[in-house]
Design a protein that fits this description.
The structure is a single chain. It contains 2 helices and no strands. The chain has 89 residues and is mostly helical. The model has no long low-confidence stretch (mean pLDDT 82).
Amino acid sequence: MNIGGMHRGSPPGGYYDPYKNPNLPNRDKGEHLTKRLTDETIDFLSQKHEKPFFALLSYYGVHTPLQAGPDKLVYFKEKTNTVAGEKAF
């Protein structure tokens, strides 16, 4: 079973749904790929398995382009604005 794997080191559609990946159907427009792969792995591990299995989760996030999820962008933007208004030392 292959969920989300491709022959390339970077996702063809980028890090947000729509993924343009034949091994990963689109689900929620704007969803971040790292979250989606995590959800898929958790779902797989939660299923009943009759035989031993090997699961390997490899995120695309270690490759470029680096794209953070929208929730992280907001968090770090707010954090930057807070730090920028204060003296560093």
